[in-house]
Amino acid sequence: MLEVVDGQQRLATVTLILAQIRDYFLVNQESERASTLENDFLLKRDLRTQEAVPRLILNDIDHNYFQSTVLTRPGSPERMLLTPSRTSHRLIRDACEIARKHILAITSTSRTPIDALVDYIEYLNGKAKVILVQVPDHANAFTIFETLNDRGIDLAISDLLKNYLFYRAENRIAEVQASWAAMLGALTAVDTDASLVDYIRHYWSSRNGATRERDLYTAIRKRISSKQAAVDLARGLEVAARHYAAVLSPAHELWNEYGISTRQHVETINLLRMVQVRPLLLAVLKKFSASEAKKAFRLIVAWGVRFLVHGGLGGGVLEDNYCERAKSIHAGSITSAKQLASAMTGVVPTDKAFESAFATASVAQAYLARYYLRALEKQAQGQAQPELVPNANEEEINLEHVLPLKPEGNWPEFDEDTARAVQRRIGNLVLLKQKLNASLKSAPFNKKRVALASSQYALTKEVGKISKWGAAAIATRQQRLAKLAVSAWPIKVT
Questions:
Q1: 193 or 230: which carries more pLDDT confidence?
Q2: pLDDT tier for residue 154 given thresholds of 50, 70 and 90
Q3: For residues 180 and 200, is the Cβ–Cβ distance under 8 A?
């Protein structure tokens, strides 16, 4: 049996379409045509065992699902045996549905649908062009693969890298293939749209410094030049994939080892969309003890908020700093959260700078404003670790603009320019139970303050005690919130 280096998706797609035509034949009592199609293109019989053997075998992760969902006949027990457990499985399932609808579209517009499908099969069999390049070994196969793809649309970096590692592995290719498959398995086990290229880049940057996507493949080729190096990189990618999957998913089983607070910090890191910090997270999970990692994750959440509010560093500069700290962790020069905090001194906004920035900040994104206010509410109540997400249920807790975004003539004390300047200021925002929020809308302050004063949230209740709501009141309240923010997101390790 031939091993396919390039063209797997095309072959799988054609097989899937032919299987759907086979299914159509069976449903429409064309069993002989179904058997002919099946024997010619989908399955063959083992001479000794007489078992049906697929003509196309996918990788270890997908083959069993592909066989049970696509190749077996509808109605057979095997067809319903497996449920999609990975992203790739769900894509196969979705592709089956698309192919089924395509076959129905062909047959529904023809007076002789069976003939139309036979024409389709004959076209694929006789007119579609397949270029077969057969080579004696993997090294030649991978060289041709890269040559053929070095033109036209750029090949995905992950495909190029896989090809290069398989080539470098030589007689240890089976080890690299197994590691690559295991890595994919760990990543696709979490329901995420994260790119494989992102993972590889973050893994590499964690150990070698920030590497931009455009430079990744070249950087790896320069550094990985031996069989052992290829095996080691593939193995490293396999092991770290579990950590990366956990970083992407707060529900991951890994966090059982770290406790609920770390799980919630991961949720917050994702809420804040802190993609640049992932190389550092990989280093922390690889090298720090569980107790030090828990402290580091809290630090990282505080950094994320401070950078979002204060600004000052571009995404590239921020990623550079995170990656340099990750390198230091891998090198052993940073072994604790306290040392990590010290290494980021001068990069992370100080308490004074953060408080000053918070006192004048506006927030356009509702999800950020809700998180800030929930954390500040916990800080005001004296709760431990206020930066943890206290309640993410938007159906229960709403974000309320005291001065509404649409005043509708009920706020004559604000001219248009002043209103626009303060509406999204943090000082003008409160948390409110959904039922109360729905009844207020653009009501004037004398009506709103009664509802705010009855709130269970301390910071919201405080607004209800204010007699007049204007730009000065908003600024004063925001200064108070800024002082709370310094304590809510601390950068000192205790």
A1: 230
A2: very low
A3: no
User: How far is Cα 29 from Cα 26, in angstroms, rounded to an integer?
Assistant: 5
Inter-residue contact 367 to 358 (CB < 8 Å): no
Q: From residue 356, give the alpha-carbon distance in Å to each of 56, 147, 202, 299, 445.
A: 64, 56, 33, 20, 28
Provide Rg for the chain, Cα atoms.
29
Relative orientation angle of helices 113-126 and 87-108, to the nearest 10 degrees: 120
Neighbour-count burial for 186-213, b at 16+ CB within 10 Å, e otherwise: bbbbbeeebebbbbbbbbbbbbbebbee
* pTM of this structure: 0.75
Two structure tokens written together for 59 = 């990788």
Three-state secondary-structure class, residue 126? helix
Q: Give the number of other CB atoms < 10 A from CB of residue 338.
A: 16
| CA–CA dist 250, 267 (Å, integer) | 5
Residue 294, pLDDT above cutoff 90:
yes
Find all residues with CB under 8 Å of 80, minimum gap 6, and list them. none
Amino acid of residue 409 = G
Q: Which residues contact 360 (CB under 8 A, 6 or more apart)?
A: 425, 478
Per-residue pLDDT at 193: 54
Can you tell me whether residue 53 is helix, strand or coil? Answer: strand
Spatial separation of the C-alpha atoms in residues 157 and 198, rounded to whole Å:
10
Pairing of strands 429-433, 52-54: unpaired
Smallest CA-to-CA distance from 122 within 30, 33, 237 is with 33
Q: Tell me how far apart the alpha carbons of residues 265 and 247 are, in angstroms, rounded to a whole number.
A: 10
Strands 43-45 and 52-54: antiparallel
pLDDT at position 78 is 77
